[in-house]
Amino acid sequence: MAGRGRGAFTASGGEQRAGGVPVATVVSEMKASADAPLLAIVGPTASGKSALSIWLARQLGGEVVACDSTQLYRGFDIGTAKPSEEERSGVAHHLIGVLDPREVATAGSYRARAEAVLADLRARKRLPIFTVGTGLYLRALLEGLADAPLRSEELRERIWASAESHEAGHLHRMLKRMDPASAEKIASGDEQKLVRAIEVCLLARKPLSEVHRSGRNPLRGWRTLKVGLSPDREALYERIHGRTMAMLAAGWIDEVRGLVASGLPEDAKPFDFIGYRELRAVLRGQMQLEDARAAIQQATRRYAKRQLTWFRREPQVFWLTGFGNDTHIQQRTLSSIRTQL
């Protein structure tokens, strides 16, 4: 059954037109001066966001824009669940594989790239359909970024040194003392985000969560429609387990072996992604493959739970209980969107 929050758009029972005008015409006649529609599909990993987005793009004359911090990187393909060339066939995709693994992805740089894509899609009268795995990136795009202090390499080095001289979990405990609200949202093992949060707290002399509430510049010229996928938890976990097995069967460990052999630095950010760190440990002889598989599945379940927690706070989402490749979910979503175009 579908649920909806305050202000979310509603289902229409299969309407095929928007205001009596064919949907393709509505999309093609978007005016440069009017707020154009932007569709965002949110939900946990393995919920079928890509499948739904691609299907909707074919129905509505849209193009897919990835909103995922892992899919930005070139070469890290299988474990980040990038849609295959076959799945993308006939539908243009943006912001997939645009970063070198040595680069650092930020919410700010993502917003700049996404705004450039939006300008192009608006000029060509195409509907943007965002597949959102990283909620912070969507928030940065739609609500704008806080006026956070720039990076301080000297301070970051001191924070890293402190982490190395203490036992595991030190950074998370440190942030919890400074900013409990931010510590609650960041996993204890995500050291990159913890370091940045601590850095901001120290430089701004106030909690990161307070910094984020000030100085934002929201996206203008676009009207956002949000769809949320929320499958049954047990069914989602079963799909996560099966997808992990399929990724391994598709040559995931060979992909990691090739990335290691390519000469990438050991501290390249993508090596910290779920699965890549475990499979690199397998290649080093530090972990058995079966243990790595179980660890990947567990970490992915936890990540899916964190994503749902984040997205449940997102306003005006039309929630659907099911997977994005389910024909009923697809038709419900299409019917709802058509009433808003």
Count of extended strands: 9
The chain-level structural class is alpha/beta
Instruction: Please indicate the count of domains.
Output: 2
Measured between the Cα atoms of the first and last residue, the distance is 23 Å
- The CATH superfamily of the largest domain is P-loop containing nucleotide triphosphate hydrolases
Instruction: Round the mean pLDDT to the nearest integer and report it.
Output: 89
The coarse silhouette is globular
Output the strand order for the largest sheet: 1-9-8-4-7-5-6
CATH class call of the largest domain: Alpha Beta
Order of helices and strands: EEEHEHEHEHEHHHHHHEHHHHEH
CATH architecture of the largest domain: 3-Layer(aba) Sandwich
Low-confidence parts lasting 5 or more residues at pLDDT below 50? 1-26
Question: Helix proportion of residues, in percent?
Answer: 40-55%
